[in-house]
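Handoff note, outgoing to incoming analyst
You'll be picking up this chain. Sequence as last confirmed:
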Amino acid sequence: IALIKYLAYATAKGNYALGAELVEVGILALLIAAEKYDITRGVKFTTYAYTKIRGAMLDYMQKEREHQYY
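Most recent structure output, in case you need it:
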């Protein structure tokens, strides 16, 4: 959870309300990563989860930006 909080608040760049939302997105992404992780691929779980969590946060931010213009 510490990694998720770090990524969320670093990605939000001082916007604490957005950071809290990104923590939620990150936790959901972690759960999805845990379900889809395949140990036979030779990638550490932390590396796999990091990319999924970061990607989910960036996707969420992009959707929020697009939503603001409508």
